[in-house]
Amino acid sequence: MTIAADVLGLVGHTPLVRLSRVGKGLRPTIVAKLEHLNPGGSVKDRIGLLMIEDAERRGLLKPGGTIVEPTSGNTGVGLAMAAAIKGYRLICTMADKQSQEKRDLLRAYGAEVVICPSAVPPESPESYYKVAERLAREAPGGFLPNQYYNPMNPEAHYRTTGPEIWEQTEGKLTHLVVGVGTGGTVTGAGKYLKERDPKIQIVGADPRGSLYTGDIHPYKVEGIGEDFYPGTFDPALVDRWVRVSDRDSFLTARRVTREEGILIGGSSGTAMFAALEIAKELDERALILVLFADSGRSYLSKIYNDEWMRQNGFLGFVVPATVGDVVKDRAGTPELIVVSKSESVRSAIDTMQRYGISQIPVTGDGRAATLTDIVGSVQEKTMLDRVFREPALVDERVERVMEAPFPVVQATDDIERLYQELSGGAPALLAARDDRPVSVITKADLLEFVAHQRRATRSR
Question: Active-site positions?
Answer without folding.
Answer: 44
